[in-house]
């Protein structure tokens, strides 16, 4: 069995005690975090029947849940000091799932980029291209292509085999150059080219949106701050994905082009741990950059925020606002008196402005932002 790392490497107790908790943490965060993402998105999907865009994030989260579960093989092998104990059939299954779920994640990110492109750049075509049926077809493609590519090594085109340096089964990049080139072209080169094109176009729109706000409102009324925030959040997901894959990609390239090249075991292992950490990154990014997601996560977990736990000073000041006015003004105050010259009206309006809730940004892929009535923000929503 060929390996991409030194086959005579012996795991130390220190190495196991460091790597095993890290991989276990990735598994736990990846599964729990992405399950919460699906719950939050599905709840919002049920409240709004037209949000097909959330299907992409649900699909991405599902792939990460399954990939996190697949890491149990890796964790057990690390604990066993690098020795694969599950036999050849499970090695092929592990390799199949590793390739399938990794490639599905990347193609889904590509589909999300195209979705954002039509939502922000080609606004008039969005509803037609991302209809319910078309969205399901696109998702089917993002799973079907990786399925074929991950099945190919099992039926003879390349081979899934155990790799000491990664503690998983995976196709060896130097085993079949034709398969590797096909995989890199279909799963890496084309998707990244599409992602780059989409976000360059989005960046130009965002830049011109800031410089020519008035013209854009007349020409493309659906472009709004929420769409820009969503694009920024999802672009961050893609950037983190790329950063995590760069070291392993360089190592795999050297492994394919320099036959006989021996990669230091620790470097091969760390680069792959960085790759699999991607399965736990997205829920953290959503929470860090999206207040609405953060709030919904707390609701699902029944955890209140520090702001909610503090007594509301605004409510207290609002209830005592009338008593704090001079007695002569209290006698003049009435519900129907809306004269701006009336001090009572000025006092109450300033108080209501202060108490107006803040608009919460969201990951709403489909719902256009409607002009809000005075004092009433639009409802927060998701993709």
From TrEMBL:
User: Which membrane topology describes this protein?
Assistant: Multi-pass membrane protein
Q: Name one GO cellular component term.
A: plasma membrane
UniProt entry tagged with the keyword Isomerase: no
Supply the Pfam families for this chain. 7tm_1 (PF00001)
Query: Mind telling me which residue stretches traverse the membrane in this protein?
Result: 18-42, 54-76, 96-118, 138-157, 177-200, 230-254
Compositional bias ranges of the Low complexity kind = 314-327
What SMART domains does this protein map onto?
Answer: 7TM_GPCR_Srsx
Where does the record place the G-protein coupled receptors family 1 profile domain?
A: 33-286
Q: Please report the name of this protein according to its UniProt entry.
A: Melatonin receptor type 1A
Naturally occurring in which organism (per UniProt): Acropora cervicornis (Staghorn coral)
Question: Which classification does the entry list for the species?
Answer: Eukaryota, Metazoa, Cnidaria, Anthozoa, Hexacorallia
